[in-house]
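Pilot study result, target chain (231 residues):
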Amino acid sequence: MWDSPLRRTPVPGQLPVRQAWAWCFVPDGRVVLVADPGPGDIVTSLSPRDEALRSVHGGKPPQNHLVPGRTPGDIPVPPGPGEHVRWYNHMPADLIRDQLGPLWDSYLTVCLERSPYEKTVSLYYHRYRTEPRPPIGQFIDSGEFRDAVNWPFYTSPGGEVLVDVIVRHEDLQPQLDAVCERLGLPGLELPRAKSQFRPPHADYHHVLTPTARAAVEDTYAEEFRHHPYPW
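Predicted structure:
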């Protein structure tokens, strides 16, 4: 990060990513607001719902996320990988590293992880927001619960952790505060999003059946090995 508390030298003209100085996370771990992005910073596309949330909190629309020579049109580019998209939300760390080359090693890289039990239950209620919902067993059997696997996003194909800091969702605010303090950045007050989908009483101990629990522990085995989340 140049021209910042980390490095007071000017931003090199050839730098492919001119990084903003702060981020805001929603409770499920996704970035919805890049604080004070300049004209050279990268802001990726989000879903229409999250774009609205980002706008409410003062965030800028997507910019500099397409391949060189392409500019956003009147119709927003959908989030995720696609034609003419160079940078996108949920982009795996190894792909970002490949794009940045040696610059990757000059950054402090941070990601967020959450208990697989919690992620599975939250995803269930996010996909099925109102009654009647399918039984949790049907959700597990469908394979949808695998959509919350994060391990490939911050590791190499060989299983090496590629990021410097893994913030745990259970301690999101204090651990994010520690990252900001480490970087010499002001603290961030996190917005809340998507908390309305999961009922307050929906504790994963009561939602996951023994069969569902076993499926989660098998599918998320790598995450459990690296993060000793208790039942």
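One observation from the pilot: Confidence is low (pLDDT under 50) at residues 1-8, 14-34. A full batch analysis is planned for the follow-on phase.
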